[in-house]
Design a protein that fits this description.
Blueprint (H helix, E strand, L loop, with lengths): L15 H11 L4 H6 L3 H16 L5 H15 L4
Length: 79
């Protein structure tokens, strides 16, 4: 990883709810969030945008998942 991820005790209070939700859903805080934590305002805004896309009824849920999977494949994400 090019950016050294922040440890949980270094993450801003603004992102604590996101880390809590990620731990609840995935079981741990993933490295992308730890890297994005350097810019808490942008990370928080991006998470709101992502949630609005997830809750949108315009596109079928299965298609959203396939697009996310394909994007992850294209960038070489191992998760």
């Amino acid at each position: 990883m090019r950016i050294e991820p922040l440890e949980e005790n270094q993450i801003s209070w603004l992102l604590k709810p996101l880390t809590w939700m990620m731990k609840r859903q995935v079981g741990k805080v993933l490295n992308p969030l730890k890297a994005w934590a350097y810019r808490p305002g942008i990370t928080f805004t991006m998470s709101i945008f992502q949630q609005s896309i997830e809750s949108s009824k315009v596109t079928p849920q299965a298609l959203k998942r396939m697009v996310c999977l394909r994007a992850a494949q294209m960038i070489g994400c191992v998760f």
